[in-house]
Amino acid sequence: MASQALVSFLFALALVIATVRCNSEVDVLSAWKATLVDPNNVLQSWDPTLLNPCTWFHITCNSENSVTRVDLGSAGLSGSLSPLLGNLTNLQYLEVYDNNITGTIPAEIGYLTSLVSLDLYNNQLSGPIPATLGNLKYLRFMRLNNNYLSGILPEQVIGLVSFGNLMILNVANNSLAGTVPSTNSTGYAVTTIIQDPRAQNA
Ligand SMILES: *[C@@H]1O[C@H](CO)[C@@H](O)[C@H](O)[C@H]1NC(C)=O
Ligand SMILES: *[C@@H]1O[C@H](CO)[C@@H](O)[C@H](O)[C@H]1NC(C)=O
Ligand SMILES: *[C@@H]1O[C@H](CO)[C@@H](O)[C@H](O)[C@H]1NC(C)=O
Ligand SMILES: *[C@@H]1O[C@H](CO)[C@@H](O)[C@H](O)[C@H]1NC(C)=O
């Protein structure tokens, strides 16, 4: 019957759309994995043929099977951060601290407007802190300390302390220029800004 065929067709179409939507996060993370050196095989479970990345180790999803956490702290990884990470639209926690990550912080990280925690400390990141990070109004923790970041801390990022939810902003031990206002209270939450110069060898 024609109506039955139509129903089957619409069902198939919905399935295709759902698959395409889910696959994009698999594609993003698989593309990033392909650029990383992973001596401890922590990314072994990142199978690019799955419909979503929700069963992969170090990945957490919400009830809609969309990625909310990437937990790759102290994983022994080298390589760089992919601009494609900016496509993980529901990401809340980007935990890539204590690795050997080089290169710059992609401006696209500033598209992750649900981000709560951005932990990139103890790596070898260089270049500027992107002003786009000032878009991250829900961000509570931004720890970029112990890298080789240069330039000034953008005023948009400092603005997150006053106008956003940022509680901890740690940019200590980088190669940043300029000074940071020593505000440490938003009136609602204690905020700590830590910007020590790079530790000198005695
Ligand atoms: C990432 O997002 C951009 C801009 O929305 C889009 O053009 C691109 O196809 C996306 N890439 C992947 C792998 O999803
Ligand atoms: C960085 O790489 C070096 C050399 O491979 C290794 O000894 C060190 O443990 C790595 N550091 C981290 C934090 O993964
Ligand atoms: C400063 O950061 C560099 C690069 O990550 C690191 O090698 C060094 O140990 C850090 N120094 C201190 C005192 O934390
Ligand atoms: C906030 O700053 C004041 C004045 O510099 C200082 O006395 C206080 O210990 C700071 N509080 C925190 C939690 O860093």
Concise overview:
The protein is an alpha/beta fold.
What does this structure look like?
By secondary structure, the chain is α/β, with parallel strands linked by helices. It has one domain (2-194): Alpha-Beta Horseshoe (Leucine-rich repeat, LRR (right-handed beta-alpha superhelix)). It contains 2 helices and 12 strands, in the order H-E-E-E-E-E-E-E-E-E-H-E-E-E. The chain has helices at 2-35, 155-163, and strands at residues 59-61, 67-71, 78-79, 93-95, 100-101, 117-119, 126-127, 141-143, 148-152, 168-170, 175-177, 192-194. The strands form 3 sheets. Strands 1-2-4-6-8-10-12 form a 7-stranded mixed sheet, with no helix packed on it. It has a 3-stranded parallel sheet with strand order 7-9-11, with no helix packed on it. Strand 1 and strand 2 (67-71) form a beta hairpin. The radius of gyration is 20 Å and the shape is globular. The N and C termini lie far apart (84 Å). Mean pLDDT is 86; it is low at 185-190. The structure holds 2-acetamido-2-deoxy-beta-D-glucopyranose (4 copies). One 2-acetamido-2-deoxy-beta-D-glucopyranose (NAG) binds next to loops.
